[in-house]
Write a structure and sequence with these properties.
single chain, alpha/beta, Rossmann fold, 2 domains, 5-stranded parallel β-sheet, 16 helices, about 55% helix
Length: about 375
């Protein structure tokens, strides 16, 4: 049976790992007459806008040629999740080639997604950092008493998480709403949606992302154990570096680094930093609890509709908006009366950055 698999992401839900797996094993999958194609984001945007494949575009020809020449075609890009109309159009334009169309997408705790997005992209965006800073000031909160990540989480709580939208401006965190919208758009096609959650629960079978994707796609796994290993595609940036870059971007109009740029350089600096991860404060933990509480009702509906474990989303503690507002004000008062805590944190960060600079210089010489 000829089959089309559309992997819609979203970003920060294991997309890069899935994409790297198929790209690095392209030859093995070609033996099964399966082809993987990572789509172009600009092309996806154009398809979404005109509800059609743009003519005289190389990407359109690539998609059509792969569809006509392979038993199984896997199309992937995390931007597809933000453009459900493009997914619907792809299904309608390509269903003439395939008897079966499977749309696969993932999800994760919103608290984890928001923090991961900040530490990957948002900390490099002066516009978004200023937005969080100004939001706190507008609510009578002194932003200088909080780290850049804390400001981002607080602003999210104060705006019902409108401020934690994607860099593109799309709000994607309500998984139930977003997947239900996609479901509605494809109802007149032969496509079905299969949802997953990361991290894959340890008790699940299979218990790896790549294997889970194969199961949902009904794909024959390749034989090599090596080729089925998880690939960590996105670099993990050190929290000290994230805070330092955030502060530079906030204080200067010139751009030190843009989102999606200089990943290798940032990864190299992160590697030189001695402290690989910071212990979360109780305050940051409570902010996470509130995020998961805010989305809990919609997540329960999402899990019921797509047969997912509610334990993957259940808040460790239910917090209301009035409670989190009180906790934010209490934390502000505490830090105003005891600024040494924040001062010591920044002193330790400065010392760590100085050491990393020396190590990098020595390694170059």
């Amino acid at each position: 049976m000829r089959k089309l698999i559309i992997h819609v992401g979203p970003g920060k839900c294991g997309s890069s790992s899935i994409q790297e797996h198929f790209k690095s094993n392209e030859r093995d999958y070609s033996l099964q007459s399966a082809s993987f194609l990572q789509l172009n984001a600009n092309w996806i945007g154009k398809v979404s806008k005109i509800n059609d494949f743009p003519e005289e575009r190389p990407e359109t020809n690539r998609v059509k040629n792969r569809a006509s020449s392979h038993q199984t075609l896997i199309l992937s890009h995390e931007y597809l999740f933000q453009k459900p109309r493009a997914v619907s159009t792809i299904c309608k334009k390509l269903e003439q080639y395939f008897q079966e169309i499977i749309i696969i997408g993932y999800s994760r705790r919103q608290s984890e997604h928001i923090k991961s997005s900040f530490n990957q992209w948002i900390f490099r965006s002066r516009k978004r950092l200023l937005e969080s800073y100004n939001c706190l000031e507008e609510h009578g909160i002194n932003p200088t008493l909080f780290t850049s990540l804390e400001r981002y989480l607080i602003a999210g709580a104060l705006t019902d998480f409108r401020s934690t939208r994607q860099l593109s401006g799309d709000l994607i965190l309500n998984w139930h709403k977003r997947y239900s919208r996609l479901d509605e758009l494809i109802k007149n096609t032969n496509a079905t949606i299969k949802c997953g959650v990361i991290p894959i629960p340890k008790a699940a079978s299979p218990n790896s992302l790549v294997k889970d994707f194969h199961l949902k796609a009904d794909l024959q796994p390749i034989n090599s154990r090596k080729n089925q290993q998880e690939i960590q595609a996105n670099p993990q940036f050190n929290q000290t570096l994230v805070e330092a870059v955030s502060n530079f971007q906030l204080l200067n109009e010139i751009k030190l680094v843009e989102p999606h740029k200089k990943n290798k350089e940032l990864a190299a600096i992160s590697q030189a930093l001695t402290t690989k991860s910071k212990n979360k404060t109780t305050f940051e933990t409570r902010l996470e609890y509130y995020i998961d509480s805010f989305f809990w009702n919609s997540n329960k509906k999402f899990c019921e509709k797509y047969d997912l474990p509610t334990a993957s989303f259940e808040p460790r503690e239910i917090l209301t908006k009035s409670i989190i507002r009180h906790l934010i004000k209490t934390e502000q008062i505490k830090r105003q009366h005891d600024p040494e805590i924040l001062i010591e944190t920044y002193q330790a960060m400065n010392a760590e950055l100085a050491q990393a600079c020396m190590e990098l210089i020595e390694s170059k010489t």
